Structures are given as structure tokens and as C-alpha cells.
Amino acid sequence: MSTASTRLPEDRYGRSSDERADRKLRIAAIVLGGVLLALVGYFAYYYVGRNEISAQVITFKATEDKVEVHLEVHKDSGADGYCTLRSQSADGAEVGRADFRFTGSATSIDKVVTLRTTAKGTTAELLGCHAG
Asked: Which of 5, 30, 104, 124 has an alpha carbon 20 to 30 Å from 79's alpha carbon atom?
């Protein structure tokens, strides 16, 4: 005696509703993935590609009321901007902060800038440089 099959005959009733839902989810995932990839590309360009000014502190010399900072700046030709420096005391309190502007067509600037402080500073920290 043979048993009756509980499977539906293939290709008789069309695709199941699960297959249609899977296809819609797959399309939605592709669209959302494309949007996410576009956003990541935009932010990567905006934050990395548009960085026209970069700098680094070479050395610094602290006295009771100022910190002299040897700053090396690299920028695009014709780009104007500023770099923000700060100094902290031995206990970690901020004792000075200032923006130093850079203009002109030179692409490399090597300059000693003076940061006035309210107490003796023990650090010279470059917080960042911005175009504009």
C-alpha cells in the first residue's frame, strides 16, 4: 500500500507567498544598502577629502605666562584657515587657548607662535585646523 504525498504539485499553484515576501525583502535590502553606501561615501569625502589644512606641533617651550609653539602647517595653495592650540597646567587645567590664522599661497608654513597663558603651562596641544 502506498501513502499519499502531502506536497503540492510543483508549478501548479505559482510561487508561494513566502517567496514573494523574500523577494520584496531582498529588494528593500539592496535599496537600503545602496543608500547607506552613498551616505558613507559622502561623509568620507566631506571629512577626509576636503581637509585643506593639516598641522603638527614640532616643539614647545613653556614659561610662566606663555608657551612658544613651533608649528608646522601644510595646506592647499590659496587656502586660508586657522589652527587651535591649547595649553594645560600640571594638574590638567586649561591655562590657555588660541586660534592662529594662516593665509597666503604658500603650501607649507613653519612658524613659532606664542600662546599666552594664565599660569605656567606644561603642554602645547594642537586641537585641530580648519579652512575658512
From this structure: 124
Q: Which residues contact 80 (CB under 8 A, 6 or more apart)?
A: 101, 102, 103, 104, 131, 132
Give the pLDDT of residue 29. Answer: 94
Domain hosting residue 59, numbered range: 53-131
Residue numbers in the chain where pLDDT is lower than 70:
1-5, 7-17, 48-51
Across the beta sheet with 53-62, the strand order is 53-62, 66-75, 108-116
CATH number at residue 104: 2.60.40
Is the Cα dihedral 102, 105, 110, 112 positive or negative? negative
DSSP E strand boundaries for the chain: 53-62, 66-75, 81-88, 94-102, 108-116, 125-131
Give the Cα separation of 120 and 88 in Å (integer). 8
Claim: this prediction has a pTM higher than 0.90: no
SS3 69: strand
Contact 55, 108 (CB under 8 A): no
Q: Is the same domain home to 60 and 119?
A: yes
